[in-house]
Design a protein that fits this description.
This protein is of the alpha+beta class. Helix content is 49%, strand content 12%. The protein has helices at residues 17-32, 35-56, 84-96, 121-137, 148-153, 161-170, and strands at 60-66, 69-74, 102-104, 110-113. It has a 4-stranded antiparallel beta sheet with strand order 1-2-4-3, covered by helices on one side. Helix 2 packs parallel to helix 4. The chain is elongated and about 70 Å long.
Length: 172
């Protein structure tokens, strides 16, 4: 660079010694602390437990992800209709119990798990227990904000639980 005339090259996008040193240090930490392996190991535990919860909770439409970045999609039970209100209710319940989760997706119906790469067994178990508790306490949250009179005025529209869900969902 000593040969270049001032102003002949510039930009903030180019590599520099500080950025290279930071990158090298980051890679070293990832390797020495086995953070990629930790992510794979605890990511599998996270996926397994969330898929287990999916089996007993019809409001979970899908669990997907890789490593520790996992999404839990919420739907109106019995169908594929996105349920952003349910995701928000679960997120709030988790936050009230000390677990910070984010919602995402076009319909805000996906809860995104992105714990730190340094997570340990105890922290993951505590987080999953809080999430499971939130599923239980919000089990009937799809009825929030609706009056039973609405249902009683149109009883002929509803012949199954699935149609009951759809009835309320359409009225939102």
């Amino acid at each position: 660079m000593n040969r270049w005339k001032p102003g002949s090259h510039g930009g903030t996008y180019g590599g520099n010694a500080l950025a290279c040193a930071a990158s090298e240090a980051t890679i070293r930490v990832l390797q020495e602390e086995k953070l990629v392996e930790n992510s794979a190991r605890f990511g599998k535990k996270l996926m397994d437990r969330l898929n287990s919860l999916k089996e007993s909770n019809q409001c979970i439409g899908d669990v997907r992800g890789l490593g520790l970045m996992v999404g839990v999609e919420f739907v109106v039970p019995g169908g594929r209709i996105p349920d952003g209100k349910k995701a928000k209710a679960i997120q709030k319940s988790c936050l009230d119990d000390g677990l910070l989760l984010l919602t995402c997706g076009t319909d805000e119906n996906v809860i995104r798990w992105i714990p730190p790469l340094i997570i340990n067994e105890n922290h993951l178990e505590e987080a999953l227990n809080i999430f499971e508790h939130a599923l239980k306490v919000t089990a009937n949250s799809w009825l929030c904000g609706y009056k039973w009179e609405t249902l009683l005025l149109n009883p002929k529209e509803i012949v199954s639980m699935n149609e009951l869900y759809l009835f309320f969902f359409k009225k939102r």
